[in-house]
Amino acid sequence: MIEIDSAVVDIALNPGLFSYLAQCTPGARxxxxxxxxxxxxxxxxxxxxMIIDAFTSDAIPVHLLTREAFEEYFDRLAADxxxxxxxxxxxxxxxxxxxxxxxxxxxxxxxxxxxQPPEAHLYHSSVWVLLAxxxxxxxxxxxxxPWQALxxxxxxxxxxxxxxxxxxYLMWRPGSRE
Length: 178
Hints:
The protein is α/β, with parallel strands linked by helices. About 25% of the residues lie in helices and about 20% in strands.
């Protein structure tokens, strides 16, 4: 696990507050620091499942959503590894951002939306993108959510470490994708 804030780790490890880490992942290795920097401490091709969950805030760490970042993620994934990215956000539609990166990297990607329908106002849903080197790998997983094709839009350029532009992806009305 990688967490940028050591206070979050302290809270998560406090048995008086949370029991999840102690019960589900006792002895888990937790790296503290920026995700991309800390990721470099993990051996290439050594991770079976990677979950990125850093985008629900109004302040999106865009350096985790660039082509180069995804190259680093896939470098750390085993050959049949999968990447899950939680992209729920009230302000920025991240589906086309990841769709462009997936297309450029030649990886397969699917999206699932769990929770209330997008038409509902003031809703809390969860949007996940699943990526793998092949569609066969995704098909081999026992998935319970309805996974659909990921949108690949012509709007905007692929985000890179040298270029990002959120304007094409801003949702001007809560819950809208316009």
